[in-house]
Design brief:
Distance between the termini: 53 Å
CATH topology: Nitrilase/N-carbamoyl-D-aminoacid amidohydrolase
Oligomer: single chain
Low-confidence stretches: none
CATH architecture: 4-Layer Sandwich
Structural class: alpha/beta
Order of helices and strands: EHEHEEEEEHEHHHEEEEHH
Length: about 300
Amino acid sequence: MQLKNATSYFPVSGDIDANLAHVHRQMRQAAQEGCDVIHFPECGLSGYAGVDFESYKGFDWSRLEEATREVLDEARRLGLWTLLGSSHRLSARHKPHNSVYVVNRRGRVVDRYDKLFCAGPRSGRGGDLRHYTPGSHFCEFRINRIRCGILICHDCRYPELYREYRRRRVQLMFHSFHAGNVPARLWKAIAAEIGPRNVRLNGAETIPGIVFPATMQSMAANNFMWISCSNSSRAQSCFPGFFVRPDGVITGRLRRNVAGILVSTVDTAQEVYDSTVAWRDRAMDGVFHSGETVRDARSGDRTRV
């Protein structure tokens, strides 16, 4: 089974119309490239509260809903699956979800993933939790008979989420990030804290730039999944959009701070190295060893040399 994916990378902002223009442009480009699906960044249409705009006070929800319907119309016209990062309004005084809409090639929303682990302290007064309500469900769907799942940004810090998706036999993960729009002064401060030597060793100047790509490679290899990683390209962007195959090898990467799409092909018949195929399921079932254990006095006495 095969699937052609476009990983989006554009400068997400607090301007819904500007975001929409990028979304439409990249959808058309993906369709011209013969893609089955395009995967957009976290809050790609709405912008990201606390970073691209201060808060949802006075937010133009009506315009966001109109823009969303325009994206649905474009998906139907192009016959393109679209994974649209945005904000989903809730009722009464509840804070919105940080979401990715799953739009099929007929332009219909068939599911929605809401970020499970919104970053921030337990008080809920900082980070994502200041602006967003966390979700409560996983999201699975099929494109070209390939089982897919979605996660968002900070979710990558919880390997349990990838393990659960693996338990559900997900083959392709769409992981949306918003690690961009970092002010120059903050960027320099982060780089200084990491230290020049460590920046050189790690090849990046921020914690997200170092940790997120490495984590995605690890998640891919440990769970044998293809992973599309979209991000905001708005300067400074911590890392560009990239794609990882199930052995942890990055097969494509865009240029940092430069908008574009990365086209990658998923081929589930491709032979890809999997070092844990023999024992992964057993480890997931709570049996934490390979092979067979033995009863032996020298094995049991762990203080003996």
